[in-house]
C-alpha cells in the first residue's frame, strides 16, 4: 500500500490499511487460540496443529483480505467504514486467508513443490519432523498426510469464521453467497489445472485458451474477484457496483497470475520465495509455456518435450528453456498482456463513479502491486 508521506490521500489509505492489518492479526490470533484450546482437550499433539497453522500464516502479504476490505470501502461510496464494519470485513478477510492457506498446502503437495514463501513447504517441514523425531513409516507419506489434514482444518475453520460475521442480514447473506462461490470455483479451477497438466482438458480450443481458463477459475475467483465482491456485498454494494468490480477483478486477477508465471523465469528467487524453474520442473501448462510452444522451432519444441515436467532436469536445461521463452518472444508477449490488462483495470476504476474515491484509490494501489512488471523487465 502507499506510504504515508506522499499525500493526504495516501496517508488516509495507509491509516486504514494499518487498522485492517491490526484487526486481521487480532482476529487470527484469537480464533486460532480458541481452536488450540479445543484441540488441547483431545491431546497435546493435536493442539500443535493450531500452532502450525499460525506459523504457516506468518509472512503472508494478506493480498486477498485487502482486496476484500477495499472492495467493501469502495461500495460504501463517500463514507468510510465504521469500526464494526471494519471488523466484519476483517473477519471475512481472515476466513479468505484460511482458504488461501489450505489451497497452498494442498497445491504444494499436488505440485511436489519444495518451497513456499522462501522456506520449506509444509509437507516438507512435516517430513523433516518425522525424520528428526525417529518416527516409523514413510517420512514423505507422513508429510503429505499432515499437509492434507491441516489444509482440511483450515477450510473448516474458514467456514466457521465466515458464519459468524455480523451485519445487515441481506448484506450478510449476499456476502455468504460470494464466499460459497469462491470455494467452489477455486476447487473447480484446481481440478482444471490438474486435468490440463495431464493433457485431459480437451474442451478448450487450444493450450493457451485452456491455460487462460485455469487462470479464470483457479486464480481469479479466490485472489481478486470473490474477495472484492464479498467486501462490496457485505457493505451493501449495488448490483451495478458489483458488476463493475467484477469486470475490474477479472482483468487484475488475470494480470496477477500472468505476472506470477513470469516470476519463475525472470524473477528474483530471494524476493519471490519461489524456486526459479519450479514451473518447468512441475510441468505447469501456463500461458507462457503455450506461447513458447506455439512460436518455437522443431528444435525448440524438442527441448520443451525433453525438459518440461521432468523432475531430473538440470539447471542448464532449465536455463535453456527460459532462454527459449525469451527468444521466441513469449515472455515479452505475456509482459505486454499484463500491462494491457492492468491499464484496462485502471480505466474501469477511473470511470466507476458509483464507487467511493477512497475505495477506488485503495483498489488501484493493490492492483499496482499485484500487476507491476517494470522491475522484472528493467
Question: Describe it for me?
Answer:
The protein is an all-alpha fold and 378 residues long. It has one domain: Farnesyl Diphosphate Synthase (Orthogonal Bundle), CATH 1.10.600.10. The protein is 77% helix and 1% strand. It contains 17 helices and two strands. The protein has helices at 8-42, 44-57, 63-75, 83-111, 122-132, 139-162, 169-197, 207-234, 239-266, 269-272, 278-282, 287-295, 298-307, 315-327, 330-350, 357-371, 374-377, and strands at residues 115-116, 119-120. The chain has a two-stranded antiparallel sheet with strand order 1-2. Helix 1 (8-42) packs antiparallel against helix 2 and helix 5 crosses helix 6 (139-162).
Mean pLDDT over all positions: 93
| CATH-derived architecture | Orthogonal Bundle
DSSP E strands, number: 2
- Widest sheet: strand order? 1-2
The CATH topology, please?
A: Farnesyl Diphosphate Synthase
How large is the radius of gyration?
Answer: 21 Å
Class by alpha and beta content: mainly alpha
The ordered string of helix (H) and strand (E) elements is: HHHHEEHHHHHHHHHHHHH
CATH class bucket: Mainly Alpha
Number of self-contained structural domains: 1
**Termini separation (Å)?**
22 Å
Helix run count:
17
User: CATH superfamily, called what?
Assistant: Farnesyl Diphosphate Synthase
Q: Which stretches are low in confidence, meaning pLDDT under 50 for 5 or more residues running?
A: 2-6
What does the overall shape look like?
Answer: globular
What percentage of residues falls in helices of 4 or more residues? Answer: over 70%
Cofactor: Mg(2+)
Family: Belongs to the FPP/GGPP synthase family.
Keywords: Magnesium, Metal-binding, Transferase
GO molecular function: metal ion binding; prenyltransferase activity
Amino acid at each position: 500500500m502507499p506510504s504515508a508521506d506522499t499525500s493526504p490521500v495516501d496517508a488516509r489509505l495507509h491509516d486504514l490499511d494499518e487498522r485492517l492489518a491490526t484487526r486481521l492479526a487480532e482476529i487470527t490470533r484469537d480464533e486460532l487460540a480458541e481452536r488450540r484450546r479445543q484441540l488441547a482437550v483431545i491431546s497435546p499433539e493435536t493442539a500443535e496443529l493450531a500452532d502450525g497453522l499460525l506459523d504457516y500464516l506468518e509472512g503472508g502479504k494478506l493480498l486477498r483480505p485487502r482486496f476484500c476490505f477495499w472492495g467493501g470501502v469502495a461500495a460504501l461510496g463517500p463514507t468510510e467504514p465504521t469500526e464494526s464494519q471494519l471488523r466484519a470485513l476483517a473477519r471475512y478477510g481472515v476466513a479468505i486467508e484460511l482458504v488461501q492457506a489450505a489451497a497452498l498446502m494442498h497445491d504444494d503437495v499436488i505440485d511436489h513443490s519444495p518451497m513456499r514463501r522462501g522456506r520449506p513447504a509444509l509437507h516438507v517441514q512435516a517430513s523433516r519432523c518425522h525424520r528428526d523425531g525417529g518416527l516409523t513409516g514413510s517420512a514423505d507419506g507422513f508429510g503429505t498426510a499432515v499437509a492434507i489434514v491441516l489444509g482440511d482444518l483450515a477450510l473448516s475453520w474458514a467456514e466457521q469464521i465466515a458464519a459468524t460475521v455480523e451485519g445487515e442480514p441481506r448484506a450478510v447473506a449476499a456476502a455468504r453467497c460470494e464466499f460459497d462461490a469462491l470455494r467452489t470455483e477455486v476447487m473447480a479451477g484446481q481440478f482444471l489445472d490438474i486435468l490440463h497438466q495431464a493433457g485431459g482438458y480437451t474442451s478448450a480450443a487450444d493450450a493457451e485458451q485452456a491455460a487462460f481458463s485455469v487462470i479464470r477459475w483457479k486464480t481469479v475467483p479466490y485472489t481478486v474477484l470473490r474477495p472484492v465482491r464479498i467486501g462490496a456485498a457485505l457493505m451493501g454494494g449495488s448490483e451495478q457496483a458489483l458488476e463493475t468490480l467484477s469486470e475490474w477483478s477479472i482483468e487484475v486477477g488475470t494480470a496477477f497470475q500472468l505476472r506470477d508465471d513470469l516470476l519463475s523465469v525472470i524473477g528474483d528467487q530471494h524476493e519471490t520465495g519461489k524456486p526459479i524453474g519450479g514451473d518447468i520442473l512441475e510441468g505447469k501448462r501456463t500461458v507462457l509455456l503455450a506461447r513458447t510452444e506455439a512460436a518455437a522451432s522443431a528444435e525448440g519444441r524438442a527441448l520443451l518435450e525433453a525438459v518440461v515436467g521432468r523432475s531430473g532436469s538440470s539447471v542448464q536445461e532449465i536455463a535453456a528453456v527460459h532462454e527459449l521463452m525469451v527468444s521466441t518472444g513469449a515472455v515479452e508477449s505475456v509482459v505486454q498482456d499484463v500491462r494491457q490488462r492492468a491499464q484496462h483495470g485502471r480505466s474501469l476504476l477511473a470511470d466507476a463513479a458509483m464507487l467511493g474515491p477512497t475505495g477506488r484509490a485503495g483498489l488501484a494501489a493493490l492492483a499496482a502491486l499485484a500487476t507491476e512488471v517494470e522491475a522484472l523487465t528493467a
